[in-house]
Amino acid sequence: MSRVYNFSAGPAMMPEEVLKTCAEEMLDYHGSGQSVMEMSHRSKWFDEIIRTAEADFRKLVGVPDNYKVLFLQGGAWTQFSAIPMNLMKNKVADYIITGQWAKKAWQEAKKYGNAKAIASSEDKTFSYIPDVSDLPIDDDADYVYICQNNTIYGTRYPELPDTKGKLLVSDVSSMFLSEPHDVSKYGIMYGGVQKNVGPAGMSIVVIREDLITDDVLEGTPTLLKYKTQADAGSLFNTPPCYTIYVCGLVFKWLLGQGGLEAMKKKNEEKAALLYNYLDQSKMFKGTVEKPYRSLMNVPFVTGNDELDNKFIAETTEAGFVNIKGHRSVGGMRASIYNAMPREGVEKLVQFMEDFEKKNG
Ligand SMILES: *Cc1c(COP(=O)(O)O)cnc(C)c1O
Fold first, then answer.
1. Catalytic residue among 56, 68, 94, 101
2. Minimal CA–CA distance to 61: which of 341, 267, 295, 261?
3. How does pLDDT run across 98-130, given as a tens digit for each residue?
């Protein structure tokens, strides 16, 4: 068996210990004689799996008692619709456009009401985060929406926006559980799990309890209404059972690693290895303005397409896979989520140094 260092933006690397537990428990979960894939979501085993997963998530993140944690089918994109349908009471919402995912969420919200783009960094290919200290927030805005870590462009908010008392809704997909989250600052904090948590197919939505009501937009599908799932403990219909189980194992793994403060420290160290090298390299350049650099997604270029392609081909050959950048930025992108070992980043930097020597 030989495993690669997978720098994909998502689906992405999983902790090896978690995959081993999955393998060990694949045919017979805890004496049930079944795989988790095969068992009823109403069984006593699954009941314990989902309860434990939620309890561990709450402990890990420090979720306040007045917030619900929902495990919902569908990716982050499903929430682009659910959020306006549940929150747009005045039919006004303010969006900050810092990349493709924020833009897509905004475009989706426009179907349901007056969704306004109140700031954007599109003028410089989303390579920075706009000043969010004094935004033209609408008096009747139902919420202010951000994408806190921009997976494609490799930026993150250094500070949360001043929403002038309005609810803050944040997509944290590509930074989920990579550092502590102060849940009390958000009305909703949510993310698809396939970037930094578990297998694809699910989002975790952390939502303040008073926002879960029957007062939703007319025509809201039963399954997109948060109250439906909140009342049923995320078990209204068949949930993504296997994904919930694997996420639960990842929560335990993260607790074992020392929790989110410890992960933040490790992630800062890993990112620094790469950024420090980029800052002194004559060949490779980071594409993001320094104060806004993501700890998770690191885009870089040589400025020469041919050289980029040569680098991508050679890294792939050497077992560093999925390092090709998103087509809208070009070049390369190394996604270094929680499960990427420090050694993977060290070896990549070594490879880049060697490549620069040979081709410089
Ligand atoms: C990947 C991603 C999405 C879309 O996720 P899906 O699960 O594919 O719907 C949304 N937001 C961010 C920040 C992402 O990285």
1. 101
2. 261
3. 999 999 999 999 999 999 999 999 999 999 999
101 carries an active-site annotation? yes
Torsion angle, alpha carbons of 131, 136, 140, 145, to 10: -20
Percent of the chain with pLDDT over 70: 100
* 86 and 182 belong to one structural domain: yes
Q: Is the pLDDT of residue 328 over 90?
A: no
**CB-based contact 57:137 (threshold 8 Å):** no
pLDDT above 80 (res 192): yes
> Domain count of the chain?
2
Using CB distances shorter than 6 Å, the residues near ligand 1 are 10, 75-77, 101, 147, 151, 171, 173-174, 192, 195
Atom of ligand 1 nearest to the CA of 172: 13
Cα torsion angle, 264, 77, 63, 60, sign: negative
Residue 4 counted as domain residue: no
Mean pLDDT value of segment 273-297: 97
Evaluate whether residue 1 is within a structural domain.
no
- Assign residue 313 a region: left if phi > 0, alpha if psi is -120 to 50, beta otherwise? alpha
- Centre of ligand 1 to C-alpha 225, Å, is 20
Last residue of a domain, one of 234, 256, 278: 256
Residue 360 confidence (pLDDT):
83
Is residue 139 within 8 A of residue 152, CB to CB? The reply is: no
- For the chain, the distance separating the N- and C-terminal CA atoms, rounded to the nearest angstrom, is 35
Tell me the CA–centroid distance for residue 18 and ligand 1, in Å: 23
284 and 191 in a common domain: no
Task: Please say whether the beta carbons of 70 and 204 come within 8 A.
Answer: yes
What's the chain's average pLDDT? 97
pLDDT at 4 over 80: yes
Residue type, 187: G
Q: State whether 90 and 54 are in the same domain.
A: yes
Q: How far is residue 67's CA from residue 58's CA, in Å, rounded to a whole number?
A: 10
Question: Of the residues 227, 256, 285, which one is the last residue of a structural domain?
Answer: 256
Whichever domain contains 90, its CATH number is 3.40.640.10
